[in-house]
Amino acid sequence: MHKAGFVNIVGNPNVGKSTLMNQLVGEKISIATFKAQTTRHRIMGIVNTPEAQIVFSDTPGVLKPNYKLQESMLAFSESALQDADVLLYVTDVVENPEKNQDFLAKVARMSVPVLLLINKIDQSDQKTLGDIVEKWHGLLPNAEILPISAKNKFGTELLLKRILELLPDSPPYFDKDQLTDKPARFFVSEIIREKILLYYNKEIPYSVEVSVERFKEDEKHIHINAIIYVERESQKGIIIGHQGVALKKVSTESRKALEKFFGKPIFLEVFVKVDKDWRSSERELNHFGYNPE
Predict the structure, then answer these.
(1) Which of 90, 98, 199, 243 is 20 to 30 A from 159 (CA-CA)?
(2) Alpha-carbon torsion angle 254, 258, 260, 264, nearest 10
(3) Do the Cβ atoms of 91 and 117 come closer than 8 Å?
(4) Which of 94, 138, 146 is nearest to 115 (CA)?
(5) What number of other Cβ atoms are within 10 A of residue 106's Cβ?
(6) Which residues, 6+ apart, have CB-to-CB distance to 273 below 8 Å?
(7) Distance between the two ends of the chain, CA-based, in angstroms?
(8) Is pLDDT at 153 greater than 70 in this prediction?
(9) DSSP-assigned states of every residue in the chain
(10) CA angle, corner 258, sides to 252 and 264, nearest 5?
């Protein structure tokens, strides 16, 4: 009998959800950086074996929304509670377990299996970990608790085995050779955005969106034109940098990462434009794919 199901990963920002997803899927599907709010969409990564198909879904970190973009991000996280066959709630050894009580209350009421993953255990000791487990057991009494270190691949094999046991019997939802539900253009914009997160400080990365205007693939190459949207002229100046040096660095690093991702030489052109309202405009957020179905 074939098993298949949706395994959704939720939790607060910066607890290692994207790192875990990449370990489980075995491909760099979710961008994982050290800054909060890196993941803005719900991204699916698909693991296929002859007997099973696990559709993992990484979501933005749960946060109290301050503007429209964050409302969309929270909607993606909450939608992950609706259609999960198994829910992975990720926390870590430094997070306050009582953070985001509203969301926790929704998780506690779920009828599907919930695996509570305490990540980054390499940064803790046995006694502290025991205290954390006890606290979580009180907050989510029905959850099964598994200590892991996603970065060091500790506990991830055991986790995969447990997920397979919990999956319902079902035919596959996607083609068995498919890795993700997202198109190639999506990964181009995510990879460029990842480089912006790494190379610019403070508010700049969070005021930025990347749109792929052209993606043309032939036998040997891929030609890509991308636009980096910012909210203010001053941000445009920072992104471009003195004599274009900063933008050139982002373009070069993005091109290298894209060539690794697609396995082909890439011609990449990147432009910068100002769009003052993109984080607050329903129309713009729709254009960038932020409204969940």
Answers:
(1) 98
(2) -130
(3) yes
(4) 146
(5) 15
(6) 227, 228, 229, 230, 236
(7) 31
(8) yes
(9) --EEEEEEEEESTTSSHHHHHHHHHSS--S---SSTT---S-EEEEEEETTEEEEEEE-PPP---SSHHHHHHHHHHHHHHHS-SEEEEEEESSS-TTS-HHHHHHHHT--S-EEEEEE-GGGS-HHHHHHHHHHHHHHSTTSEEEE-BTTTTBSHHHHHHHHHHHSPB---SS-TT--BSS-HHHHHHHHHHHHHHHHS-TTGGGG-EEEEEEEEE-SS-EEEEEEEEESSHHHHHHHH-GGGHHHHHHHHHHHHHHHHHHTS-EEEEEEEEE-TTTTT-HHHHHHTT-S--
(10) 110
Closest CA to 230 of 279, 281, 289, 274: 274
Mean pLDDT of 137-143: 92
Residues 6+ apart with CB under 8 A from 203: none
CB-CB neighbours of 281 under 10 Å: 15
- φ and ψ at residue 216, rounded to 5 degrees: -120, 120
Distances (CA, A) of 184 to 29, 210, 240: 11, 14, 25
Would you say 247 and 272 are in contact if contact means Cβ atoms under 8 Å apart?
A: yes
Q: Is the pLDDT of residue 44 over 90?
A: no
- The 10s digit of each residue's pLDDT in 181-214 is 566 777 788 889 888 888 886 666 567 888 888 8
pLDDT 10s digits, 212-227: 888 888 888 999 999 9
3-11 and 52-58 as β-strands: parallel, antiparallel, unpaired? parallel
